[in-house]
Amino acid sequence: MKGVVVKSTGSWYLVRDAEGKLHRARLRGKFKLKGMKVSNPLAVGDRVEFDVETTGEDTAVIHKIEDRENYIIRQSTHKTAFSHIIAANLDQALLIVTLVSPRTSFGFIDRFLVTAEAYDIPTILVFNKTDLYDEEMRDYQRQISHMYQQIGYKSITVSAKSNEGLDEMNELLHDKTTLLSGHSGVGKSTLINIIVPDLELKTSEISDFSDKGVHTTTFAEMFEVDDNTYIIDTPGIKELGIVDIPKNQLGHFFPEMRERLNQCRFNNCTHFNEPGCAVVEAVRHNEISLTRYESYLSMLMGDDNRK
Ligand code: GDP
Ligand code: ZN
Known about the structure:
- Its cofactor is Zn(2+).
- The protein is of the alpha/beta class.
- The protein has helices at residues 106-119, 135-150, 166-173, 188-195, 199-212, 255-258, 278-284, 290-300; strands at 2-8, 13-17, 22-27, 47-53, 59-65, 71-74, 84-88, 92-97, 123-127, 155-157, 177-182, 221-226, 229-233.
- It folds into 3 domains: 2-88 and 196-233, CATH 2.40.50.140; 92-193, Rossmann fold, CATH 3.40.50.300; 247-300, Probable gtpase engc, domain 3 (Ribonucleotide Reductase Protein R1, domain 1, Orthogonal Bundle), CATH 1.10.40.
């Protein structure tokens, strides 16, 4: 049988088959990812083949993992330690942000976007809590959205309270597997509760299952919105681990810098204090947003863990 891993506890997995039935599963034998040290061979979103053993408990055995289209990894802070695969086979990410209560920093948004660029996951910004905006805030949000749109990131406005934009959000999710992310307090859980029908039921199904596992630490869970629509939540993960990007490559993950790279005098330009830098020139002429450039510099300097 074929299915998708919707939950992983480390030693046990929950697999949804084509009919939507959930199976408790374990992995047969050892699987290794080439060239990478990872602590988990299998993650949420992985497509697998499995057999159901009819004896004893309803237990499935996974014998094959299909090649991943992409995946995101939580990198260990220790170079020698193992990384953790958070999720696989994502079509896109929705980054939920707020301008008030709380205010998401540009640094946070831009770090997320760089990580998503590195993993090749298209990202859409979702401004939540628009019911709290006054006219001035609306204007400000439009300016920010315009800035991100110019460099290739779509954005929408929603309110979990007034229901603004929820139809548009559902359309964006339709027939896709989407990672939902956001700083805590932005309303991610509230939105997931609205988007996923019978969420409470699904959550209880899933937690029943994890109680039987040895490890109950979870890193991500996948919810079915409808037949071909899934969302992946990463409870407890504040930020995706930024991939290890060499300084003179960081600009490749800022679309507005990437398109100017070959205009810099030096081809290993870090766009900081080199003469003849096309990026610095573009910032001077307001062709590259100052907030984006500040995010770039703070990542370049390595103080990108500040909030
Ligand atoms: P999470 O940490 O991102 O999962 O955030 P929650 O979903 O727990 O929401 C944090 C708080 O924001 C809660 O008190 C929600 O009721 C509130 N909240 C969520 N969405 C909205 C919204 O659209 N408008 C307003 N005014 N409050 C919201
Ligand atoms: Zn440069």
